[in-house]
Amino acid sequence: MSLPLTVQIVAPDRVLWSGDADFVSAPAADGALGLLPGHESVLALLRAGAVRVRAGGDVTEFPVEQGFLSFDANVVTVVVGGRH
């Protein structure tokens, strides 16, 4: 079994979500992005849509207007702007 993703989703004023997850999807500027453990490193601008985090059987969704996503060594950091 592979190691989980370590995920942190942050807004300018607070942490929206932090924890381990099995899968993260995000609306990247150049298309939908899906991340599983072991994915290659990514730095992506985000467009309007939703970031989805699957942890166990639960899926949590975070609407985003803009932001960016960084992924390296199974660590996902999402920085979002706009209202949350």
Automatic annotation (TrEMBL):
The entry's localization annotation reads: Cell membrane
Alphabetic keyword roster: ATP synthesis, CF(1), Ion transport, Membrane, Transport
Query: Where does this protein chiefly localize?
Result: membrane
Q: Which GO terms describe its molecular function?
A: proton-transporting ATP synthase activity, rotational mechanism
Question: InterPro entries from the entry?
Answer: ATP_synth_F1_dsu/esu (IPR001469), ATP_synth_F1_dsu/esu_N (IPR020546), ATPsynth_dsu/esu_N (IPR036771)
Occurrences of domain ATP synthase F1 complex delta/epsilon subunit N-terminal (ranges): 5-80
In what way does this protein cross or attach to the membrane? Peripheral membrane protein
Record carries keyword rRNA processing: no
The UniProt entry's GO CC annotations, sorted and at most eight, read: plasma membrane; proton-transporting ATP synthase complex
Q: Which family does it belong to?
A: Belongs to the ATPase epsilon chain family.
Cite the NCBIfam families for this sequence: PRK13442.1
- What is the official name of this protein in its record? F0F1 ATP synthase subunit epsilon
Origin organism is Miniimonas arenae
